[in-house]
Amino acid sequence: MLRLAATVGSSLDAIYAGTATEEEVERFFKHVRLPNGVYKTTERRRLDDLNAAVAPLLPTGRMLELMDVGVSSGTTTVEWSEQLEVPHRIVAGDLSVAAQWTRLGFADVLRDDAIVYADVLGRVVDVFGGTWRSRLALPLLELFARILPSRSFPLVDPRLASSPVITLVQDDIFVPRPEFDGRFDAVRAANILNRGYFEEERLRAGAANLIRRVRRGGLLIVCRTDDGVTDGSVYRVGDRLEELARLGAGSEVHDLVLAHPWAPSFTAAGA
Length: 271
What we know:
The protein is of the alpha/beta class. The chain has helices spanning about 1-10, 10-15, 20-30, 50-55, 75-85, 130-145, 160, 200-215, 255-260; strands spanning about 65-70, 90-95, 100-105, 105-110, 115-120, 125, 150-155, 165-170, 185-190, 215-225, 230-235, 240-245.
């Protein structure tokens, strides 16, 4: 464990510079824990089957405008882009996209409202204070992080940050974004509209906001992956929602999505 932590700690400069290996990036994000308790990590290749199912349903012959929400580290967003064979631009949104990096002589701290990652002498600290070492270290690290100079550190895969076709935005799917209404050929919500995360009314509000972002004739893609198995649905958005494709058991919020009295404002496809 000490060896792994030291490897993670030494990767911060490489991640910041965009020169880290995929393995270094993956190890780092396994230690980044957000204030809501969620680790900001994404398994590689977990949505390949979903991408393959969606590809033939997308328009061709023009630039596609796509959105991926709740992207976490953004690894699967990059993979989606790499697997698309048509011109495209992707807006990638997540609630937490950057932290403030404070570098000390003995520690590194990343803070976003609260500490999301810290190491002391190359050893990763449990930011939820699960050990006596972390309970002693965290108040001191919090103090340093608040008062000492810091710089922004992107909490996404460096490949996403450097991609010429992906734009990263801070986004809360439960808050309306009028500038996104009717803008996208497809909106993908992977592993976020989950009953295990939110109550039904919350899910309804999030789904309604995402529907408004899809242009007429566009796609809403909703899925959940567990133990390497993807259950999801691809919907065509028009005067009503039509399920075009299903993976596994389909979306776990399928009934909720179809039952909602949508009233989206559309723009014409290709506008």
